Design the sequence.
């Protein structure tokens, strides 16, 4: 519930300013090998923005707009075998998702 305010006798004017809350989506990426070990140094690109996974096999893409996106991942000597978003598998081919 809001705060109480005193309204004096007579005509009064109340101005309320509201700003739209921007919709954003943050993407946190974790790359692991088939044994579950972190994979550092993997090149990840989402919507043309490149990142490389750190020593823990992670990187992030903050401030994306909700909706459709495209991405890819590459590391010499490895191939993508599974891509999962929020617990659900998503389609991929040749490292592209």
Sequence:
């Amino acid at each position: 519930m809001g705060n109480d305010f005193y309204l004096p006798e007579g005509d009064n004017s109340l101005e309320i300013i509201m700003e739209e809350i921007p919709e954003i989506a943050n993407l946190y990426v974790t790359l692991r090998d088939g044994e579950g070990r972190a994979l550092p140094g993997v090149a990840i690109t989402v919507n043309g923005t490149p990142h490389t996974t750190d020593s823990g096999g992670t990187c992030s893409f903050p401030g994306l707009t909700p909706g459709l996106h495209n991405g890819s991942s590459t590391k010499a000597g490895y191939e993508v075998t599974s891509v999962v978003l929020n617990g659900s598998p998503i389609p991929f081919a040749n490292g592209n998702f």
The domain at 25-89 is CATH 2.60.40 (Immunoglobulin-like). The chain has a mean pLDDT of 91. The first strand starts at residue 25 and ends at 30.
